């Protein structure tokens, strides 16, 4: 017991020593992202980052050169494929899917151009709001999260902040207590006796909440001062609004290469895709980093949500996608607020990243199955076309995962150079839109990471969707063990 106390004190001391550095970094990133979304922010790249970007362009140029030099081989390959028993049907299917995907993209572009976030309503119109922050092994990050929420431009008398420690094994509870000391009655903290999972921590928060609107914020995320008011304003304007998704950016995008790539990917995913989905009233997933829910919509499905199972096993992943799905099923609109910014931490290493994607992939498979049960029924009075189109698009990506994986492996075995060249050239063409999109919204220098991310995902994460499909019945957070390993490593070093 004495040894544990000494280690705990040393951990706290270590956190205190690094706190000023982390605070400085968080505030710097926060200030950058708090500026106008139209403003260009050019930041110097690290030597490694510069090398990765140069390597990316060399690879894509080499791919284009291969396609040019091997044009006759390409022609011969296409002829052989068309004349084969399976080749022509596959070619027809590919053409149909290409036309469909192109049509969906153009439709999304049309919707995006029409999208405008709902401006914040006045203080007197703002509803009462409860913010729930579940935390597990987040350490000092939870302090930053809670203080950023307390600094929100939201009437104090209408704001309730709850933090739930889900049986953490590090100093998360200590930092919650420190936040409680600083914020007083503005913050209520609770501790789960054992780690039950994020869904159960949120469930406890929902039961304790008193606000008309429930907001969930991850304990490794920081919000802007106007995030909360922007996030909840749609509920005032649209009485059919049941949930709202926030605009997620990467907080630690200065620390490693992967967060740089993911930041560009997140902007495309949220500011383009969710803007289009919002115009259809059918955002498919409200992110755990920052999401808002009408309390009546939550209570309507809370029992089903906490007791959700898949193939007979309790669901302990995808709680955000599941909640969104159940609220859509009730006939509510689910919207996106581009002006509700939240900065969140993402994995900096490959292991953490692929485990996060596996978790998301499994949730996507499960919730698409659930959505299939109601999306073609009369689940809402308004138009159901948008929700159905999004469902079909998502389902096609899942259904075609294995056929395209088999074709890719066949292509690699038969014509490796043709595969390499065509893939790299395709990345150059297809990823140019995310590059232009990010450059228009933020920074040209950072926009080029979209190319690097596409190459990285294509060659090192292509297996995620097929693997998530065949293991969709498996549970587990996957990345939580990584945090525990880091704690053990720090304790050993001390």
TrEMBL record:
Instruction: Kindly list the residue ranges recorded as spanning the membrane.
Output: 48-68, 88-110, 389-412, 418-438, 450-470
Q: Name one GO biological process term.
A: hyaluronan biosynthetic process
Q: Can you say what this protein is called? A: Glycosyltransferase family 2 protein
Q: Which GO terms describe its molecular function?
A: hyaluronan synthase activity
Q: Which organism is it from?
A: Flavobacterium shii
**Taking the first listed entry, what is the main subcellular location of this protein, grouped into a coarse class?**
membrane
Q: Which Pfam families match?
A: Glyco_tranf_2_3
Q: Which InterPro entries match?
A: Nucleotide-diphossugar_trans
Places the protein is found: Cell membrane
């Amino acid at each position: 017991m004495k040894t544990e106390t000494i280690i705990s004190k040393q951990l706290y001391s270590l956190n205190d020593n690094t706190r000023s550095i982390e605070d400085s970094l968080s505030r710097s990133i926060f200030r950058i992202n708090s500026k106008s979304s139209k403003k260009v922010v050019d930041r110097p790249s690290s030597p490694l980052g510069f090398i990765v970007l140069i390597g990316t362009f060399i690879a894509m140029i080499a791919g284009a050169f291969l396609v040019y030099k091997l044009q006759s081989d390409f022609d011969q390959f296409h002829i052989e494929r068309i004349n084969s028993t399976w080749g022509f049907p596959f070619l027809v299917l590919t053409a149909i899917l290409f036309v469909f995907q192109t049509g969906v993209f153009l439709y999304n572009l049309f919707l995006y151009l029409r999208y405008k976030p709902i401006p914040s309503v006045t203080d007197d119109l703002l509803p009462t709001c409860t913010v729930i922050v579940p935390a597990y092994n987040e350490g000092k990050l939870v302090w930053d999260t809670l203080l950023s929420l307390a600094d929100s431009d939201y009437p104090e008398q209408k704001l309730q902040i709850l933090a739930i420690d889900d049986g953490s094994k590090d100093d998360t509870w200590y930092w919650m207590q420190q936040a409680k000391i600083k914020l007083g009655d503005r913050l209520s903290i609770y501790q789960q006796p054992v780690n039950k999972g994020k869904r159960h921590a949120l469930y406890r928060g929902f039961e304790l909440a008193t606000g008309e609107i429930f907001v969930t914020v991850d304990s490794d995320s920081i919000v802007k001062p106007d995030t909360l008011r922007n996030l909840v304003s749609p509920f005032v304007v649209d009485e059919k609004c049941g949930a709202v998704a926030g605009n997620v950016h990467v907080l630690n995008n200065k620390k490693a290469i992967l967060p740089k790539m993911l930041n560009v990917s997140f902007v495309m995913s949220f500011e383009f895709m969710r803007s289009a989905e919002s115009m259809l009233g059918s955002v498919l997933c409200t992110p755990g980093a920052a999401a808002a829910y009408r309390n009546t919509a939550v209570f309507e499905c809370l029992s089903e949500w906490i007791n959700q199972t898949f193939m007979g096993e309790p669901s302990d992943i995808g709680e955000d996608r599941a909640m969104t799905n159940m609220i859509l099923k009730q006939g509510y609109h689910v919207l996106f607020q581009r002006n509700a910014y939240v900065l969140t931490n993402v994995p900096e290493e490959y292991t953490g990243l692929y485990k996060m994607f596996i978790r998301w992939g499994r949730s996507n498979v499960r919730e698409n199955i659930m959505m299939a049960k109601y999306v073609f029924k009369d689940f809402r009075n308004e138009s159901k076309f948008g929700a159905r189109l999004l469902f079909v698009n998502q389902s096609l990506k899942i259904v075609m995962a294995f056929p395209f994986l088999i074709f890719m492996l066949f292509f690699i075995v038969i014509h490796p150079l043709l595969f390499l060249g065509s893939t790299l050239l395709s990345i150059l063409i297809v990823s140019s839109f995310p590059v232009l999109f990010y450059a228009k919204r933020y920074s040209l220098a950072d926009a080029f990471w979209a190319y690097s991310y596409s190459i990285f995902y294509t060659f090192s994460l292509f297996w995620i969707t097929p693997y998530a499909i065949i293991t969709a019945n498996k549970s587990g957070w996957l990345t939580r063990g990584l945090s525990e390993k880091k704690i053990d490593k720090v304790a050993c070093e001390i």
